[in-house]
Design brief:
The structure is a single chain. This protein has 421 residues and is of the alpha+beta class. The protein has one domain: Outer membrane efflux proteins (OEP), CATH 1.20.1600. The protein has helices at 2-14, 24-34, 36-57, 105-171, 177-212, 231-241, 243-264, 307-373, 379-414, and strands spanning 62-69, 72-74, 85-87, 90-101, 269-280, 288-299. The strands form 2 sheets. It has a 4-stranded antiparallel beta sheet with strand order 1-4-5-6, with no helix packed on it. The protein has a two-stranded antiparallel ribbon with strand order 2-3. Strand 5 (269-280) and strand 6 (288-299) form a beta hairpin. Helix 2 (24-34) packs across helix 4 (105-171), helix 4 (105-171) packs antiparallel against helix 5 (177-212) and helix 7 (243-264) runs antiparallel to helix 8. It is elongated.
């Protein structure tokens, strides 16, 4: 007895571990870590952060150190009483400059970089929202394809059994040749449908892997909470949190800063400068010089061939273009929210109708199966009803998937419970 228990325990330990079920949120989390598009958006955000740091750095003093060392021979031809001599000319210079006025260029540069940072962050959120919807679509795509493939297999198996029985009944002279041929045709059609369903499942799995980076394993069903917030409330929330609108606003701010930056090209700039310099053997043997100077440095471009005015005109035009794109984004956002809200409502109604249709088709098949057994209806009627049932199942599965996708789309548009990066 003890030996049998040990053998059984060893067999259990040898079994492969059960696959852990995957939820939609877990699939989205895996996609966030894997997806190349999202990684690129994060890198763009890091680059925008670096540009802002660089723009802020223009406010701070610059410190430079320069030096040189040479070796050679200097012949002054007797001037100043110096004959030819070996010299080692060398010098070192330390310079410090602190901008005090730049015509607004530094502040405009910081504002432009800050707007670029906000835009990059908004685009990262946009990429994450798009990824959530794409993963939801791929997730339900796998579940739908898997369920339909299994239904197709059962459908084909049932048709094969009806074909076997039809051949026996034809051999016994109970049915005509036409009934047998129609049954065999339906059976072949069912096998072809199973092959197509298997191919669709493989495609759905490949799309899932391309987004998530892992194979779809035991995907959990997704419950629909049935909640549909008021459309006006959803529109208001979407406009308040929309990353697309935030990116468009950031583009307007960046364009406005570019106008100030272009205007600053025609204004003077002033800096405080300090210099400490030491030189040896520069002009004649044993020459030495030590100097410290402090003062102002300035620059003012008085004429640039119209380049400053052209830059200002271009920047002003970019402001108008950015404002127009912002208005288009706001209008597009409203359209997208209304479409997602309507799609969710419609998908739920379609799902309920498709489920009712599938249940009705199932009951019709069960009734026809009994009628065929007692000889009240021909087998072909049952085969047609089973084919209709499979179509109803496919429509019900597709409708359930559309509810999930529409719900996720509305969720990310209004940021209703959707986690943001």
């Amino acid at each position: 007895m003890r030996r049998a228990v040990l053998i059984a325990a060893g067999a259990l330990l040898a079994l492969p571990p059960l696959a852990k079920a995957t939820t939609l949120e877990e699939a989205i989390a895996a996609a966030r870590a894997y997806n190349p598009d999202l990684r690129a958006a994060r890198a763009q955000t890091d680059a925008a952060n670096a540009r802002l740091d660089a723009a802020k750095g223009a406010r701070l003093p610059t410190v430079g150190l320069a030096g040189e060392y040479m070796s050679g021979r200097n012949d002054l031809g007797g001037f100043f009483g110096f004959a030819a001599a070996d010299v080692d000319p060398r010098a070192v210079r330390l310079e410090v400059a602190q901008p005090i006025y730049s015509g607004g260029a530094i502040l405009a540069g910081v504002d432009k970089a800050r707007a670029g940072q906000a835009g990059a962050k908004a685009q990262l959120v946009q990429a994450d929202d798009a990824l959530q919807v794409a993963v939801a679509r791929a997730y339900v795509g796998v579940r739908t394809a898997q369920a339909f493939f299994e239904a197709s297999q059962a459908h084909a198996k049932a048709f094969d059994e009806w074909a076997r029985q039809a051949q026996l009944r034809f051999a016994a002279g109970e049915i005509p040749r036409s009934d047998l041929d129609l049954t065999l045709a339906r059976s072949a059609e069912a096998r072809a449908g199973t092959a197509r369903a298997q191919g669709a499942l493989e495609v759905a799995r490949a799309r899932y892997v391309a987004l998530v980076g892992d194979a779809p394993i035991a995907l959990e069903p997704i419950a629909d909470d049935g909640v549909l917030p008021p459309l006006d409330e959803t529109l208001a929330r979407a406009e308040a949190v929309s990353p697309a609108l935030e990116a468009a606003d950031a583009a307007v701010r960046a364009a406005q800063a570019a106008v100030r930056l272009a205007s600053a090209q025609g204004l003077p700039s002033v800096s405080i400068a300090a210099r400490a310099e030491q030189a040896r053997d520069q002009f004649f043997p044993d020459y030495r010089s030590d100097a410290v100077t402090v003062g102002l440095q300035g620059r003012w471009t008085l004429f640039a061939g119209g380049r400053v005015q052209a830059a200002k005109a271009e920047a002003s035009a970019e402001v108008r273009a950015a404002e127009a794109r912002r208005e288009a984004t706001r209008a597009g956002l409203k359209t997208a929210v209304i479409a997602a809200w309507s799609d969710l409502q419609t998908s739920r109604l379609a799902m309920a109708a498709a489920r009712d249709q599938a249940q009705a088709a199932k009951r019709a098949v069960e009734s026809l199966r009994q009628e065929v057994r007692v000889g009240q209806r021909p087998v072909v009627d049952l085969l047609d009803a089973e084919r209709d049932q499979l179509g109803a199942v496919a429509r019900a599965l597709a409708a359930e998937g559309e509810v999930t996708v529409s719900g996720r789309q509305l969720q990310v548009l209004a940021a209703a419970g959707a986690a943001r990066p």
